[in-house]
Amino acid sequence: MGTTKPHKVTLEKEKETLLITLYAKALDSHSKNSILNDKKAAELMDLMDYNFNKITDFGNHIMVIRAKQFDTWVKNFLETSPNTTVLNLGCGLDTRVSRIMPSPRVKWYDVDFPEVIEIRKEFYTNQNGYKMIASSITELDWLGQIPNDNPAVIIAEGVLEYLTEEQVKVLFNRLTNHFPSGQLIFDVMNTFAINSGKENLKETTGAEHKWMVDEIKTVDKLNTQWKRINKLSIFKSPYIRKLPLKDRFIYTALCLIPSFRNMMTLLVYKF
């Protein structure tokens, strides 16, 4: 890491939400039975000059389980395709590259808004096999910086909800047209989930979710080049079993309600 002084953070709207996921992962790292074991997230949080007390009520367990499940899927892909390009969209201060520690044969790109990458550069540096790209993922030109000679595994963790469906469709089609083959790993939220947290999210950060998915078949139709190979309710992830007994009981009971059970779905498509 490149600094030991507190870093003042003045992000807003969807950019500020990166601190919600950082907080969740840092909190989990201090747990007796940590799921993600993300010590680096805790280190980064300790170096943030930010009032984390304002973002303590955003489903920390869910974000940690999502990250762990995505890590597992990425590792599985890298095991079968070692010469891979990894594209982490809307990376925020995510430490996935440190958690996975990819081989030198992997080319890893973290992409986010210029303001976010400026903060990220306090803790990470561009080097052989790893590069940060400062751009909104909906801009047209950033993808041209990435070679298209290898398969790609593309991650969008807690990002696409802030786009419109049309923006998501355009993005997906640009990605599948750019790379010869690969997988897209991302999450979607249903109307119940988004409406339940809308006021808290807007009041806390000013951000708003836009893309709501109640039928996964609508996602299937966004791209003609891909095929869905995995669909997993966040509450059906095997990592739920690592939660404390009380939390597992609560989630099990609430999963009897369909709208709750399908609040967040984790998806993998191959192309």
Automatic annotation (TrEMBL):
<dbReference type="InterPro" id="IPR029063">
    <property type="entry name" value="SAM-dependent_MTases_sf"/>
</dbReference>
<keyword id="KW-0808">Transferase</keyword>
<protein>
    <submittedName>
        <fullName>Class I SAM-dependent methyltransferase</fullName>
    </submittedName>
</protein>
<dbReference type="InterPro" id="IPR007213">
    <property type="entry name" value="Ppm1/Ppm2/Tcmp"/>
</dbReference>
<dbReference type="GO" id="GO:0032259">
    <property type="term" value="P:methylation"/>
</dbReference>
<dbReference type="GO" id="GO:0008168">
    <property type="term" value="F:methyltransferase activity"/>
</dbReference>
<dbReference type="InterPro" id="IPR016874">
    <property type="entry name" value="TcmP-like"/>
</dbReference>
<dbReference type="Pfam" id="PF04072">
    <property type="entry name" value="LCM"/>
</dbReference>
<keyword id="KW-0489">Methyltransferase</keyword>
